[in-house]
Design brief:
Elements lengths: L3 H6 L6 E3 L14 E3 L1 E2 L8 E4 L11 E2 L7 E7 L5 E2 L16 E9 L5 E7 L6 E7 L5 E7 L4 E7 L11 E7 L11 E5 L2 E2 L2 E4 L15 E2 L10 E5 L6 E4 L8 H16 L15
Antiparallel strand pairs: 1-3, 1-19, 2-4, 4-7, 5-6, 6-18, 7-17, 8-13, 8-18, 8-19, 9-10, 9-17, 10-11, 11-12, 12-16, 13-14, 14-15
């Protein structure tokens, strides 16, 4: 039986967290919390709390062929459904020391509004670190926040993300941790395992992100704003956050391989054997 968590984790290094949204094997009995599957150094065992018991969400979780209840995606209503976890240093990145990170998710937005996928940020004010989101124009973006200078460095896709295609897309943004006035030039965006064109917006006053006491949130910004309306992948294809370390960063080849494993995970539940192509770890 394939362990898709382990297969994906093999490309994410030693400090990462997969948020297995909707997977009963990683939820408590009441389905009000879900616990991360993470790396051997950091990211494992962090608890997220749903805004209400997941089975009480407006739309039901969709499972892969109902095989042992492996979640395919979890719908969020865009008004009051989200999950969050207490602040932890794991979720903060020290780009003043050249540390980078990557964040990725399978998403299927129902609209093209300003909606949050994952964030350590309040809606307004200096108390913020980063924001992975769908822009008003339907473009995927990642904004880095220097809370001391109250400025952003960010990247936005050039072409709109098209929810009208009615299928999930695997979106990843990586940051090389360069910090400083050209920090946004270190952001790259991948869709479906391939690099896409983006526009970087730098700020000469940006120095680095600041580790602040901010609640990490999925499908919402802290403060109950900009909630996500649509579906987010569940189980082993749940949202992931990876901190780059000296032992490894997330490469373009890694992203393509994670995409392939994700496709296979969505076609098969535990116990279903399917062909697997050779993957290359870089």
């Amino acid at each position: 039986m394939r362990d898709f968590y382990a297969e994906i984790g093999a490309f994410l290094g030693t400090s990462y967290a997969i948020i297995p949204i909707g997977d009963p094997r990683h939820e408590n009995a009441a389905h009000t919390t879900v616990t991360t599957v993470g790396g051997p150094v950091a990211g494992n065992g962090l608890v997220f709390t749903y805004s209400e018991a997941r089975p009480d969400f407006d739309e039901a979780t969709v499972f892969v062929r109902n095989q042992q209840r492996v979640p395919l995606w979890v719908p969020f209503n865009g008004s009051d459904e989200e999950l969050d976890t207490p602040d932890d240093d794991f979720w903060s990145v020290d780009d003043s020391g050249d540390q980078g990170f990557s964040v990725g998710a399978w998403i299927w937005p129902d609209g093209i509004a300003n909606e949050t996928i994952f964030a350590k940020r309040v809606n307004v004010g200096a108390n913020a670190e980063y924001l992975f989101h769908v822009e008003q124009e339907g473009k995927i973006g990642l904004a880095l926040r220097d809370a001391n200078a109250s400025v952003n460095a960010q990247t936005i896709m050039d072409a709109a993300f098209a929810p009208s295609t009615k299928f999930r897309q695997f979106v990843v943004v990586t940051y090389d941790g360069r910090a400083g006035a050209d920090a946004a030039d270190g952001l790259k965006t991948y869709v479906g395992g391939a690099l896409v064109a983006t526009t970087a917006t730098n700020n000469v006053n940006y120095v680095s992100m600041v580790n602040g006491a901010i609640t990490p949130t999925v499908a919402m910004r802290s403060g109950a704003t900009s909630l996500y309306d649509g579906k987010i992948g569940g189980g082993p294809t749940g949202l992931f956050f990876m901190k780059h370390t000296a032992a490894g960063i997330l490469t373009a080849q890694n992203i393509a391989d994670i995409y392939q494993v994700g496709l296979e995970a969505q076609r098969a539940g535990p116990g279903l054997l399917i062909p697997r192509r050779k993957l290359v770890k870089v």
